[in-house]
Every structure is written in structure tokens, then in C-alpha cells.
Amino acid sequence: MSDFRALTPTYSVAPQISIEDVVAAKAAGFAMIVNNRPDGEDPGAPQGDAIAHACAAEGMAYAAIPIGHSGFSHPQLDALDTLLGDATGPVLAYCRSGTRSTHLWALTRARAGDDIDMLCDAAANGGYDLSALRPMMDALAG
């Protein structure tokens, strides 16, 4: 069962998706899926190549911006910023729980100058707490 959580009208996050979720994402109007999980993190979960293949079969764009234990980097923020700028429709990003996908989005948008309180509210509406990330968001916005 799909668990897509809209943070904005054009960006949603989800816990680990299945191949069937790709079909559901297409039906829901998503144009791109962004994988924020490193391959091998959970060998039992569909790996990036399987999701990429399912996206291609559905005519959807696919990109991977893996976020591992080392945390977030400026190149990852740059990659998401570029993808969002080039997206031809709504984007669905996923990781194990949706938290890394939410954090990457929040950091990217804070760096771009979006209102941090609004970002925190959007994340909270999706079930994600950005309070621990707030100092980093403030620093990026500075």
C-alpha cells in the first residue's frame, strides 16, 4: 500500500517503495521518483536498478541521490536542487522511512531562501519533525 506524503504540491516523500508503488505513483501524477537510499542498505528491499527499470516502464524519470550514514553534503543538495528545477511534474522521493528525503528537501529549500518555519510546518504535516535539523537549516539560510 502506497504511503505518499505531500510536503508541497510538487514534492512528496515516502518510506521504501515497491515496484507496485511505482505504478501507483504514475497513476497519482508523479513525473519523477528520487531514490535517497544507498543500494544494499536493505538487501530485501527493491534496489535502485529495479525501481529505475519500473520507472522507465511507466515513462517516469528516475534519479538516485543516496544518503548514507555520513549525512548530507552540498553536492547532494545541488543534485536535488537541479532535479527539482528540471522536473516536468511532481516528484516523489523515498528512503527507508521518508526522513532523509524530507531532510534533503528541507536543507535544499532552506539554502534557496524558503521560509524555514513554513518548511518545518510542511514536514510536520507529512509526519516529519525537523526540529533537530533547524540549526543546520538556519546556517544554510544565513
Query: Approximately how much beta-strand content do the residues carry?
Result: 5-15%
Question: Helical proportion?
Answer: 40-55%
CATH architecture: Alpha-Beta Complex
Characterize the overall form: globular
State mean pLDDT (0 to 100 scale).
96
Pfam families: BLH_phosphatase (PF04273)
Protein name: TIGR01244 family protein
Domain Beta-lactamase hydrolase-like protein phosphatase-like: 3-111
InterPro entries: BLH_phosphatase-like (IPR005939), Prot-tyrosine_phosphatase-like (IPR029021), Rhodanese-like_dom_sf (IPR036873)
Report on this model:
It comes from Sphingopyxis terrae subsp. ummariensis. This is TIGR01244 family protein. It holds the Pfam family BLH_phosphatase. InterPro entries: BLH_phosphatase-like (IPR005939), Prot-tyrosine_phosphatase-like (IPR029021), Rhodanese-like_dom_sf (IPR036873). One of its GO terms (molecular function) is hydrolase activity. It is a single chain. The protein has one domain: Protein-Tyrosine Phosphatase, Chain A, CATH 3.90.190. The radius of gyration is 14 Å and the shape is globular. The mean pLDDT is about 95. The chain starts with a strand and ends with a helix. Helix content is about 45%, strand content about 15%. Strands 1-2-5-3-4 form a 5-stranded mixed β-sheet, sandwiched between helices. The protein is α/β, with parallel strands linked by helices. The chain has helices at about 20-25, 50-60, 75-85, 100-110, 115-125, 135-140; strands at about 5-10, 10-15, 30-35, 60-65, 90-95.
